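Input structure tokens:
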């Protein structure tokens, strides 16, 4: 890059001047993403009376009867204590059953109740949330580029790493 240049070279070799409006445009896109996520969670809560993370956990248990709390945490990519709290609230609400099983009586198996199935029938999908669903539908090259670019942003933000495993519905 020539001395005095402020950006990466263009395809033609000339330096590209920074666009002073780019940060504001990108910020608006982040706002649009967060507002879409929030609107979905609000609709879920209004129709089902459950938070988005609870709905997702309920759907995972429905789709994998007999799984344990650890498996639920891995499937949802959340901390085990988060999954335990979700399970506790769903058991207390009568939406799932938790049974001790096998030789190791500490292990539990989860199963959706009829009330849980009725609750899920009232919920607009996708159960995992609109953002995880949209990310899963991106082209692999786009997703890889987005991951790399967000990594650059996160280096500047220096967030608390524990937040990575907190469901968006709980933020």
């Amino acid at each position: 890059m020539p001395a005095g240049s402020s950006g990466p070279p263009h395809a033609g070799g000339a330096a590209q001047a920074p666009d002073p409006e780019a940060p504001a445009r990108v910020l608006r896109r982040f706002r649009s993403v967060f507002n879409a996520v929030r609107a979905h969670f609000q609709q879920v809560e209004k129709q089902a009376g459950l938070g988005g993370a609870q709905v997702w956990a309920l759907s995972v248990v429905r789709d994998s009867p007999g799984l344990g709390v650890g498996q639920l945490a891995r499937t949802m990519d959340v901390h085990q204590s988060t999954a335990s709290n979700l399970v506790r609230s769903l058991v207390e609400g009568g939406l799932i059953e938790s049974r001790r099983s096998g030789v190791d009586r500490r292990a539990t198996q989860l199963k959706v109740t009829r009330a849980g199935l009725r609750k899920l029938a009232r919920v607009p999908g996708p159960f995992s949330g609109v953002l995880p669903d949209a990310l899963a539908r991106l082209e692999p090259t786009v997703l890889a580029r987005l991951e790399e670019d967000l990594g650059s942003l996160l280096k500047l933000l220096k967030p608390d790493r524990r937040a990575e495993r907190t469901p968006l519905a709980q933020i």
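DSSP finds seven helices and two strands in the chain. The helical segments are 22-48, 52-63, 69-76, 80-92, 114-121, 130-137, 140-157.
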